[in-house]
Every structure is written in C-alpha cells, then in structure tokens.
UniProtKB/TrEMBL annotation:
It comes from Chauna torquata. It comes from the Eukaryota. It is a multi-pass membrane protein. InterPro entries: Claudin12 (IPR013287), Claudin_CS (IPR017974). The keyword Nucleotidyltransferase does not apply. This is CLD12 protein. The gene is Cldn12. It is found in: Cell junction, Tight junction; Membrane. Its main location: other. GO terms for cellular component: bicellular tight junction; plasma membrane. Keywords: Cell junction, Membrane, Tight junction, Transmembrane, Transmembrane helix.
Length: 245
C-alpha cells in the first residue's frame, strides 16, 4: 500500500488518540483524585472517607455510596496546589489533543479521497497530508507532557501532605487514569511519527507534501551555453521542453 493511502497506523493512531481523550475526560470529571480517610475510635460511629476531585468534594461513611457531605462549589475553593494546577492543565491537554485529532482526521480524509495526481493549478494549494500528521504528532506529544507532569506531581504532593499533617492522604484512581491517558497520547504521537518517517524520502525537505508536483508537469529550461552556441539565431529563441524525472 502506498503512502498516499490510509495506513493502518494512522487509523490506529486516531483510535488511540480518541480513547486517550476519553480517558482524560473521565479523569477530569471523576471526584477521585485524592482520598482523606478519617478514623474514629468511637464504636458507635463509622469512619469517614473524603473523596477530593478537581471540581467537587464528597464525604462518605464506610460501606455507603451516598455522600454525607457534597460540595459542588469545591472548584472555587481548592486549597491544594497540585489539584489547582490540574484544573488548568487537564482541560488544556484535552483541547490540544482534540486539535491533534482534528488535524489527523483532515490528513486521513485527504489521503483517502484526494487523487494521487493533483490538478496542476492547485498543486500548491492542496492540504499537506504528511504535514497534518506531523503537526498532529507534535500536538499529541505536547498534550502528553501537559497531562503527565502534574499527574505525577500529585503522587509526590500526596507524600508531602502526609509528612506535613498525618498519614491519612492517598491518591485515587483518577491519577492512574490520567497517567494511562498520557501514555496513550505518547503512543499516538509515536505512531504518527513512524508513519511520517516511513513515508517521507530522506533527501527531501523536512516539510514537503507527499507529492511536490504532478507527474505530468513540464518545466521549461534553456540548454547550456555550449549547446546554444551551435544553434542558429532563430533556434535560440525557441525554448526547449524537458521532462523532469
């Protein structure tokens, strides 16, 4: 299959990127970034676990699924620096990944539905499929960095809180979902980079479409001076048509 066709690598990259964005969305919405477990020595009372998310906070008794205390305005009063950073980092990472998905989709549609021999007049205006995938790969890599760095920081900040106060803090499932989604974004960018490197001839410029001109294009060039010197005055003014390889 030629590089102008839609490879399985680009389709797999698009599916992987979509799954990663879905994972990021789940991590953003779930109130399971940090747990604070409060113990009681009173036998008539139950232990309480406070689930802290990016936007809401929920306190539950052990064995219960209902929130005893539910704070939907938690996002305005977040007092933990790592969660405050995540409130900005994860939506930005999602926006970057969605932009990359859009570019990847444009490149796939262009390679699937556009003729491999473009119109001579439109050759310089066509969408660069290889460029779309390259920029999409860079955006996926950027989204991975924006998501992964603060998500890992939650683990270290959790240890800091345990040392500063009491060992009652623990990170929750949203941390693992965010890190796994960042890994999916990195895998997606690697797939797109591999596709780009495999489909580009190495001597060509770094930024060049899969077709730089139509195969039927002609260029007008003059013969060298030694050849033209043997031509008559009339023949000199006649351009010689040569075919580019």
């Amino acid at each position: 299959m030629g590089c102008r066709d839609v490879h399985a690598a680009t389709v797999l990259a698009f599916l992987s990127g979509t799954a990663s964005v879905a994972g990021l969305l789940a991590a953003v919405l779930l109130p399971n970034w940090r747990q604070m477990r409060l113990y009681t020595f009173n036998k008539n009372e139950k232990n309480v676990t406070v689930y802290t998310g990016l936007w809401i906070k929920c306190a539950r008794f052990d064995g219960s699924r209902d929130c005893v205390i539910y704070d939907p305005q938690w996002y305005t009063a977040v007092d933990q620096l790592d969660l405050r950073v995540l409130q900005f980092a994860l939506p930005l990472s999602m926006l970057t990944a969605v932009s990359a998905l859009f570019l990847c989709l444009i490149g796939m549609c262009n390679t699937a539905f556009v003729s491999s021999v473009p119109n001579l007049k439109l050759a310089k205006c066509l969408v660069n499929s290889a460029g779309c995938h390259l920029v999409a790969g860079l955006l996926f890599l950027l989204a991975c960095a924006i998501c992964l760095t603060p998500s890992i920081w939650v683990i270290f900040y959790n240890n800091y809180l345990n040392r500063k106060y009491e060992p009652v803090f623990s990170f929750d499932i949203s941390v693992f979902i965010a890190i796994a989604s960042a890994g999916g974004l990195f895998f997606t960018s690697v797939l797109l980079f591999l596709w780009y490197c495999a489909c580009k001839s190495l001597p060509s410029p770094f930024w060049q479409p899969l077709y730089s001109h139509a195969p039927s294009m002609h260029s007008y060039a003059s013969q060298p001076y030694s050849a033209r010197s043997r031509l008559s005055a009339i023949e000199i003014d006649i351009p010689v048509v040569t075919h580019t390889s």
